[in-house]
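dumping this here before i forget
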Amino acid sequence: MSSRFLFEDPSPEEAELGDPSEGPSITLAEKGVCEGYEKYGYNGEDFISLDVKQMRYVPHTADAAPIADIWNKRRDRIDFVKHYFTKELPDYLRMAAPYLKTTVFPDVYLLQKNSSSPVVCLATGVNSSAVTMTWRKNGQDLHEDVDEGETVPNGDGTFQKRISLKVETEEWKENQYHCVVQHENWKTMIIKNITEDEIMHNVQTFQWISHCVYDDQKGVCEGYEKYGYNGEDFISLDVNQASYIPHTADAAPIADIWNKRRDRIGLVKHYFTKELPDYLRRAAPYLKTTVFPDVYLLQKNSSSPVVCLATGVNSSAVTMTWRKNEQDLHEDVDEGETVPNGDGTFQKRISLKVETEEWKENHYHCVVQHEKMMIIKSITEDAIKHNLKHRTRVTAIISTIVFLLLLLLLSFLRRLHRGSPKSS
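structure:
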């Protein structure tokens, strides 16, 4: 993986052509050499570019041809640019590298099982979960026939995400379809065009995720193990029951075989209950502790909005979204501000207006994201905490207190009445 540093510098020939639309840009690879280019634009169009390998200027319009010819004859200019790319910039970036922030760009692939299957755009190796992916047709964002997957960890500190598009072969051959990968920390974007050469056909993807949340107070590990096939859930492990659960018909016979292999179950159980807790117990003093917030779903009554509350967040930079069947929702959503709790942590809430029948028939999730952490809370009867229950409990307590006070008052009045002198 090359370490990339983008560097812009004014052209030495600004006086001849005016400001270039794009100055020199270079990539400093691990070998310490510079792979760069130099482009000049005129009125928003490519005008002249430098072929760094051949060290000659290439015109892109008829008007640029005589200027490129003059520049190519000026060997002092060529020698200056060659020295700039092969000596000055590599030396500068070699010295500056320890102080510059390295941007690692992910690998992006276009996958397709067969010609009638959706085209899947996969970005992997992303160093943050805050990555966005979109499909475009002739420069316009697409929303129909698009299915966006969740951002999932790779297990090495990086993430992967995919977005699929249902499109006929004849359609993408007659139009320009692009997969666009963007990140808030990048100053550029990665664009992958659908072409015959770019699409990888008959690709089978098998994924395995092993996850553990270590409770250093109890010294136990709450974990899970998931297997995916071609971007879909295939088999998952119920750690408490020590049993593999199939998620598709094709996975059923494999899960059955794995469940019969008690040696495999024993190894996995030992891994989650003994090995991982022991390792994390020893490693805990050297690891950065991530404090996960508490996330609740609240509702006053069945006709009120469902409120997703995240509290105990150790930073105000938290994002919350509502999703319906894995698609982000924007309508009927009211997002509150992030407010301090007073103990150094923060809380935030986001509400959703949705009918009970609607969320029972679909998958609604509240997604809380912060740095490399993601918490997903699904709307279910068990997950929603109704305030009416708490009110009933409080009312019952108050009623009990009032009843006891009345008993005490009656007892006091009775004693007072017995102790008073009888009238003649």
